Amino acid sequence: MAAMDRWRYENQAAQKGHRQIAGTDEAGRGPLAGPVVAAAVILPPDFRHAQITDSKQLSPAQRERLYGEVYRHARSIGIGIVDAAEIDRINILQAALRAMAIAVENLSPAADFLLVDGTFRVPVGLPQEPVPKGDALSLSIAAASIVAKVTRDRLMDRYHDYYPHFGFCRHKGYPTREHRAAIRTFGCSPIHRRSFRGVREQLPLPEEPIRC
User: Would you tell me which CATH number, out of the four given (3.40.190.10, 3.30.420.10, 3.40.50.1100, 3.30.70.141), belongs to the domain 5-159?
Assistant: First the structure.
């Protein structure tokens, strides 16, 4: 999609009178460990960058570089983080939407319209438009996807320092063969999502000694 086309949703919102249009996305719905992290980004209307796209299509080095570009040029960036315990309590979908709501609430200046990656609305009192595959269709959502992904990866690198035997610096908590083997060997850490398949099977029975 051409760079100009990736402003289509933003331009439609602007034509309705909105001026602070934020894209929002999350990272970390699939991992077995760690938080879900969301970002909301308001870009200036003259911003163009052909390489900013869905973070999943970028290498770690590309994401890091583009993360810097977004932070240099954005009008406003908000971050939202929901930890593993809350994910277990309310489920991953609700946790992802809550993380996006927190990210939106942390914008300064605030947004007056949201473009949301996916099909669900964020639980905030703002006009908004869910955009399926929005991280490939909207520059604002793509920027948010990069910020969310880099922020989460950096958090998982820090968790690696506390729990090095799980290898979080390599797989970021995703269910790789290495990660599953570590869970079977060491049990679960405090940041594992105990409601997730691949973790809950390794939890001790009530009469067994607690391992995590």
Answer: 3.30.420.10
Record the pTM: 0.93
Q: By C-alpha distance, which of 37, 69, 38 is closest to 52? A: 69
CA distance 168 to 34: 9
User: How far is 41 from 209, CA to CA, in rounded Å?
Assistant: 46
Q: Can you tell me the distance from the alpha carbon of 202 to that of 191, in angstroms, rounded to the nearest whole number?
A: 14
C-alpha dihedral sign at 152, 60, 47, 27 = negative
- Per run of 10 residues, the mean pLDDT along the chain (length 212 residues) is 74 97 98 98 92 88 96 97 98 98 98 98 98 96 97 98 97 97 95 96 67 58
Number of C-alpha atoms within 13 angstroms, CB side, residue 176? 12
First CA to last CA distance, the chain: 47
Output the pLDDT for position 210.
55
Helix ranges restricted to H, the chain: 8-15, 60-73, 84-90, 92-105, 134-137, 139-162, 168-171, 177-186
State which amino acid sits at residue 133: K
Domain ranges of the chain: 5-159, 162-202
